[in-house]
Design the sequence.
């Protein structure tokens, strides 16, 4: 979410007022929805574990995102999040990216073959978590990767300028595949 759909902040996005969409991101999600894609978010939200905001604030951020998406003609089908901070050593935590727990939850909830689920993010840990369950990986040059491209990207990672470029690529790729002769 942060850095892919909305502006990221070094001091964390802590409120709905601080949650600001990236240019074109909401329209990209709407475009994906209109092309028949479901959109699901897997996000680390360590600000909860750090005591910077609570579930009420997180829900307010997501309410704002969903409202703005509806206005743009789009929707998010589900949001999976990890509230743990990296220092907590939460023994039961398998959900903090780069661990694959959030993606395993998505797989189990939706009953999908993750090798058919493209995943897009702005950090290496986003891609590592997705690749661990077999998702094709896509990096957007927004958020954390805007200034410096991560090294050691998973094999086959596609790089896009932003979420709209990813949406355009995915839709064009899907159309090319569906138009191939049998």
Sequence:
């Amino acid at each position: 979410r942060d850095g892919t759909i909305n502006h990221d902040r070094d001091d964390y996005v802590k409120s709905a007022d601080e949650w600001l969409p990236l240019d074109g991101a909401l329209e990209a999600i709407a475009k994906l929805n209109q092309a028949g894609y479901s959109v699901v978010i897997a996000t680390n939200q360590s600000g909860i574990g750090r005591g910077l905001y609570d579930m009420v604030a997180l829900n307010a951020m997501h309410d704002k995102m969903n409202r703005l998406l509806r206005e743009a003609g789009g929707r998010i089908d589900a949001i999976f999040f990890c509230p743990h901070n990296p220092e907590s050593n939460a023994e039961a935590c398998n959900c903090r990216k780069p661990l694959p727990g959030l993606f395993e939850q998505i797989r189990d909830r939706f009953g999908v073959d993750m090798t058919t689920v493209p995943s897009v993010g702005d950090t290496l840990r986003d891609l590592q978590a997705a690749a661990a369950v077999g998702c094709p990986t896509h990096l957007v040059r927004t958020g954390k990767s805007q200034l410096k491209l991560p090294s050691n990207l998973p094999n086959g990672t596609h790089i896009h300028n932003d979420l709209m470029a990813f949406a355009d690529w995915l839709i064009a790729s899907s159309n090319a595949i569906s138009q191939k002769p049998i």
